[in-house]
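Researcher: Here's the sequence for the chain we discussed earlier.
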Amino acid sequence: MASMSAIMKSGHPKTLFAAFLYFDFCFAVWVLNGAMAPFITEYFKLTPSQTGFMISVPIMAGALMRLPLGILAQYIGRKNAAITEMVLIMIAMAYGYFVVTTYNEVIAMGVLLGIAGASFGVALSLGSGWFPPQFKGLAMGIAGAGNSGTVLAVLLAPPIATAYGWKTVYGLAGLAMALPLLVMIFMAKEPPDRDHAHTIKDQIKCLWEKDGWAFNLVYIITFGGFIGLSSFLPTFFYEQFGVTKVEAGQLTMLAALMGSGIRIVGGYASDRLGGILVLSVVLLVAIAGLLATSTAPNIVITTTLFMVCFAALGAGNGALFQLVPLRWPATTAVAGSMIGEVGALGGSIVPLAMGFSKQYTGSFSAGFAFFAGFALVVLLVLRYFQRQWVGKWVGPNGRVLAPAPSPVHAMGHSPASA
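Model: Thanks. This is the structure I predict for it:
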């Protein structure tokens, strides 16, 4: 395997950094309502199901906005799409700071937070677009590690909300978006892999392909689980163990940090071992972690299990997006946005399921068990589809498919001796 220095020289590191920072700050904004859920719940005296719905709205909105932004990026360029999105986010944060005063307006703010959640496909495609196929898994893992924005949100939002009020968090988040915006303007460079020849019909055909929907199911678990659980964990820790709101954010940070950092490892391991193999392993770990968490006896064991579970989900995110550019090399941004959209929509089920589980059974265990069962079904689907994929567009275990040898080389002759 090439050294990191050689890998970076094969692409455009400044664009990769800009994509990471853009995704990182967008992700932090996207999960703000989840990070502040204990404050908002207490302020408006919400029921568990109302809290679950409030947390799920930004996830659903962000999911629905991903595909349109991905299609837009195919026409105006990923850099321009990212700049446009960040400007809109800053406007949305001003609405949150100056206007929001009621629960219904919090729900409307959740829809606006979804603008930030649309960044996924654009960020990963922009960050990896300069890199050759054999290094795209690592490049996408680095750009995708921007989901560490969850860490920023759950670590910083609670103490700011405690000191200055939860609405202040929106205002400061809007000001902070200036940093990734300026980095994107001055450091990023549009990759050369944009395909102008494809029509809109060609670009969205992945919506109707079976392979795309197999990827969607996997991503509901890996990314949907990550965003859904990381948004709900502050509420879970606060209500389950009676910790303070700030401590709930800190405990969530430990799990989210594992999921974010391991994403890079997942992409790197997939380049070497194959994305299908890595996905199979991490799904098994996630299933075991979810089931164990539902019956964990204390906060230390629960937090440790969440860290293991999030590490698996993060590695799975990196692994899946090692495969996406191999399956859809000319329309990666659109395919990535579509997969990200369905995955995030699936993730919105998690807070809803947890809220209903708590309200109607008095416990969160049923919610964890439900998600673990669904993950098992998805693992079986992946193993079924991998038999159709290997040799067709991907190599054994999901590695880059080696080019077929020329007839001359196949006979053992060099071109010079032929």
